[in-house]
Specification:
Length: 95
């Protein structure tokens, strides 16, 4: 069964692999996530070399349909975060 990594799992892995305390590892992860969130809120993309790019996309309002009942429902416009993986990351998964 595949494992879903949590924030705590990442912090523990960094602590073990780098040799930092759990609190220092936690602080680093929180700062990275906070930086990415702040930049996206400002409308800027966040590109991590050899990994990928986080960006905000605007989706227009549209009419959706409940697949079970067939009832049409309006879906409001919204901003969503998208991630595009880099070619280096993509190529590491090709067999």
């Amino acid at each position: 069964m595949k494992k879903t990594w949590t924030r705590t799992d990442i912090i523990e892995a960094i602590s073990e692999n780098v040799g930092l305390s759990l609190s220092d590892s936690s602080l680093i992860i929180e700062e990275i996530f906070e930086f990415i969130i702040n930049e996206l809120e400002k409308g800027d993309d966040v590109k991590i070399s050899s990994f990928g790019t986080f960006s905000v996309r605007h989706k227009k309002s549209r009419i959706g349909r409940n697949p079970k009942t067939g009832v049409e429902v309006p879906i409001t416009e919204r901003n969503v975060v998208s991630f595009s993986s880099s070619n280096v990351l993509k190529s590491s998964f090709k067999s």
